[in-house]
Design a protein that fits this description.
The chain is α+β, with helices and mostly antiparallel strands. It has four helices and six strands. It folds into two domains: 134 residues; 35 residues, no CATH class. The longest helix is centred in the C-terminal third of the chain and has 23 residues. The relative contact order is 0.12.
Length: 184
């Protein structure tokens, strides 16, 4: 366990699981299938009645099909469980609006713009966000072999800041030393 031991005894109160599986398709596209599930270890009183322990309050799915440029070419959402049943599931077809969105800088902003507040589902939005980074992992092999394309991970995290030693060593073409104010 990479975390330190808990500060005091504790009891489970909730479990959220997010799983994303990626598949390279025979037609040159990739399918990413994500599932978000929320489960409580004991019976829970919700607006529609009692949710039995271990039964999911949320079980929501999203499939994104992307091309080699990480552009979404198909999107499908489904809800197996939601606290308000059919009302929760009713928003699923709207996630087809993700078609044409490129998974790159600004992807999470596009999710908020398309599905923010009452235009979408909080849980599907969270799942869609996680699936963006999973798409980058799925496409890494294809994108890493394009010598003319700047790797998407550069300037995407602190370890791969364009002025970092890691970029200088592993991606020298894209290395940009930091300029100090005294260099001007």
């Amino acid at each position: 366990m990479p975390l330190s031991p808990p500060a005091c005894p504790r009891e489970p109160s909730h479990r959220r699981s997010i799983t994303v599986r990626s598949y390279a398709r025979s037609d040159g596209l990739w399918d990413l299938e994500g599932e978000l599930t929320d489960v409580w270890p004991e019976d829970l009183t919700i607006a529609t009645g009692t949710l039995p322990a271990g039964r999911p309050m949320h079980s929501m799915w999203l499939r994104l099909t992307v091309d080699r440029t990480a552009t979404i070419v198909a999107a499908e959402a489904a809800s197996d469980a939601g606290p308000y049943g059919a009302a929760c599931a009713a928003i699923a077809p709207d996630y087809g609006q993700l078609v044409g969105v490129k998974i790159a800088g600004g992807y999470r902003d596009a999710i908020r713009r398309l599905f923010g507040r009452t235009a979408g589902c909080t849980h599907l939005n969270e799942l869609a966000g996680v699936m963006g980074s999973a798409a980058m992992q799925a496409l890494w092999g294809v994108m890493a072999h394009d010598p003319d394309a700047k790797p998407m991970s550069i300037d995407g995290c602190h370890a791969l800041k364009s002025s970092s030693p890691q970029v200088a060593r592993f991606f020298p073409r894209w290395y940009r030393p930091e300029t100090s104010t005294t260099d001007r």
